[in-house]
Write a structure and sequence with these properties.
The chain is built from 5 helices and no strands. The protein is mainly alpha-helical and 162 residues long. It starts with a helix and ends with a helix. It binds fe (iii) ion (2 copies). The site of one fe (iii) ion has 6 residues, from helix 2, helix 4 and helix 5. The site of one fe (iii) ion has 6 residues, from helix 2 and helix 5.
């Protein structure tokens, strides 16, 4: 890796791996969610995540690179940790709170990575790419906020009562 362009390409491939890992993990999170509010939020984000993958494919096409080629180790770690945690809780009251916590770590990782990639694209004058990345960034932020909202209303209140 020698220049900013290489760094951006690496970041896109890393995100492509991360998003695909999330798509694979989401059905499990959906099936474990206790409240319909959380399940619906995950289902909505699953549809968004499919779009995120497609946008990264568009970005890769613009950059004339293959989006495959990296494994996002950070996402692998976050998902492994979430699975370990979920194995320890089975259907009890704190499950939703734990799911929300794990999902927000994933969203925060994506927000950081998309923010970086967007800025690199802006600095390179690649406005179309910056715009695609910005669209996904907004959806990640909205998801994070929605999860906070759910946590502060339902899941955590239930856990406190328990
Ligand atoms: Fe995403
Ligand atoms: Fe996301």
């Amino acid at each position: 890796m020698k220049n900013m362009q290489d760094l951006m390409e690496h970041t896109i491939q890393d995100l492509y791996s991360a998003e695909n890992q999330i798509l694979e993990a989401l059905p499990q999170l959906i099936s474990k969610a206790q409240s319909s509010q959380l399940r619906q939020a995950f289902e909505q984000h699953q549809r968004q995540t499919e779009k995120h993958v497609q946008r990264l494919e568009q970005v890769a096409k613009q950059l004339d690179i293959d989006p495959d080629g990296e494994t996002c180790m950070a996402m692998q770690g976050l998902i492994e940790e979430a699975q370990d945690l979920l194995d320890q809780l089975d259907g009890d009251e704190i499950t939703d709170a734990a799911l929300i916590g794990a999902a927000q770590k994933v969203e925060h990782y994506e927000i950081a990575s998309y923010g970086t990639a967007r800025t690199l694209a802006q600095q390179a004058g690649q406005d179309k790419i910056a715009d695609l990345l910005q669209q996904t960034l907004e959806e990640e932020k909205q998801t994070d906020e929605k999860l906070t909202e759910i946590a502060t209303t339902k899941a955590n209140q239930k856990a406190v009562k328990a």
